[in-house]
Design a protein that fits this description.
The structure is a single chain. Helix 1 packs parallel to helix 2 and helix 12 crosses helix 14. With 425 residues, the chain is an alpha/beta fold. The strands form three sheets. It has an eight-stranded mixed sheet with strand order 5-4-1-6-7-9-8-10, sandwiched between helices. Strands 11-13-12 form a three-stranded antiparallel sheet. The radius of gyration is 23 Å and the shape is globular. Strand 2 and strand 3 form a beta hairpin. Bound molecules: S-adenosylmethionine. S-adenosylmethionine (SAM) binds next to loops.
């Protein structure tokens, strides 16, 4: 008989996967495919070296009530996606130099019976668990991470690429200092996809010893000190909506800054099972990586909600009146048509605030504002092009050429206010 989600007892009985977890898997698979495609776009590149760390692997297989069949969990999906995308690139876009993706996989699972199920699942999926590139580790994430990072570091000269999938249940098993450790030590090309149950923090807000212990374990006691918790508890009695917004905003600021990742984009996943929401956070150091992830969320309309609204500054700083957070509490930003048009309107207005007497590189505008926005590059370029059509600005290319069409816009072009043009030439 199928068990509840994440309960692997033995390989004979599979836990049922919830629909929202299947969507999460699809996002991860699509992102990984896109990641490999973007990095190997130059057809003369023969190799891509990559480390994939699944910090909370699970047992490897589920029963899907939606599809009425067995489906793979994250470790097998990650492994197979690499092989599939490599084959796809070689058949569709490589004639001379074939691509080889050299991936090291680290599958970490703390619970012994689940670890055993994982090994069985990998074998039954035809994956050689004794291969040199597969590392299956029966430890907690925090105990396993040091040797994993050391192994990653021995494979390169500071240019190693690593993707960490940190699919914890709840919020305490990936303490925030560990995110900083990952981004501080395993190189500038590290990325992480983290699940983080904000609802567990908010719904169970308490000063009980077990709650405080969880907050401390998660490394959140600086932002949720006993004093802050008591203030929030009082506020919750008067205005629970505002309390929720305040906690989410504080967590957003804290986790992002402490992680030391340059780009930090949380999306809400609405759990159909527990009727609770959690963040699927993407952390990276490259705006292009963030852009690819955002585009994938736009392609999954209605499964995710953006944490903020459509504007550019929805997520920054603390606003005592919090009125701008009202909309996000209704989860009305669902990457659908309405969200698309609101994003376009908000961008059109929002970008003007950054136009100044100094020429502004389009890439700089995007990188400095995208953390707080659900927009992807193309939407930014559309907004900038609208201003060009309205003749408020000129767009100047690297060699001084003026851009006139939407198609010709480049990320390294500069935005110059029409009135300042004469100073440039
Ligand atoms: C949410 S499930 C993972 C699901 C899996 N990533 C997937 O998508 O198929 C979390 C897993 O992490 C394991 N786990 C719990 N605490 C852990 C820890 N501190 N370190 C590593 N694994 C842990 C649990 O036994 C469970 O199998």
């Amino acid at each position: 008989m199928a068990k509840t989600e994440y309960e692997w007892v033995d390989s004979g009985s599979l836990p049922e996967i919830a629909e929202h977890s299947e969507v999460k898997h699809s996002v991860i698979v699509q992102y990984l495919k896109q990641y490999v495609k973007v990095l190997t776009i130059n057809p003369s590149i023969p190799n891509l070296n990559l480390h994939i760390v699944d910090g909370f692997s699970g047992g490897g297989r589920y029963y899907s009530p939606k599809h009425k069949r067995e489906v793979y969990g994250s470790p097998i999906l990650l492994h197979n996606t690499i092989r599939e995308v490599e084959a796809e690139i070689n058949t569709t876009s490589r004639t001379k130099t074939k691509l080889s993706v050299n991936a090291q996989f680290y599958f970490i699972e703390k619970k012994k019976p689940v670890y055993q199920c994982l090994k069985d699942s990998l074998c039954s999926a035809g994956i050689d668990i004794n291969s040199e590139n597969i590392h299956i580790i029966n430890k907690s994430f925090t105990d396993a991470i040091d040797p994993v990072i050391n192994s990653i570091l021995t494979h390169g000269r500071g240019d190693q690429r690593a993707i960490y999938l940190l699919d914890q249940y709840g919020y305490t098993d990936v303490p925030i200092p560990y995110l900083r450790y990952i981004f501080g030590t395993s190189g500038k090309n590290s990325e992480a996809i983290l699940t983080f149950s904000t609802d567990s923090i908010i719904n169970y807000l308490s000063d009980s010893p077990s709650y405080l212990k969880g907050i401390k374990k998660a490394g959140l006691h600086e932002v949720l000190s006993l004093e802050a918790i008591n203030d929030l508890k009082e506020l919750k009695q008067v205005d629970s909506k505002q309390t929720r917004a305040l906690i989410e905003q504080s967590l957003y600021d804290f986790v992002w800054k402490k992680s030391k990742a340059r780009f930090f984009t949380p999306f809400f996943i609405r759990s159909d099972v527990s009727n609770r929401s959690y963040w699927l956070v993407h952390l990276s150091n490259h705006p292009k990586a963030r852009d690819e992830m955002v585009k994938i969320h736009w392609s999954f309309q209605n499964s995710f909600a953006h944490y903020g609204g459509p504007g550019l500054k929805m997520l920054f700083g603390f606003d005592a009146n919090l009125s701008h957070l009202e909309n996000q509490l209704q989860f009305d930003f669902l990457f659908d048509e309405s969200a698309e048009s609101r994003t376009r309107d908000a961008l059109l207005e929002g970008v003007t605030e950054y136009f100044s007497d100094e020429p502004l590189e389009i890439f700089e505008l995007i990188s400095s504002t995208c953390n707080g926005s659900p927009a992807h590059y193309e939407q930014y370029l559309d907004a900038i092009y609208s201003h060009l059509c309205q003749k408020g600005i000129k767009i100047i290319g690297k060699n001084g050429e003026q851009r006139r069409s939407r198609k010709s816009l480049r990320l390294d072009d500069k935005i110059v206010l029409e009135r300042n043009l004469t100073f440039m030439f």
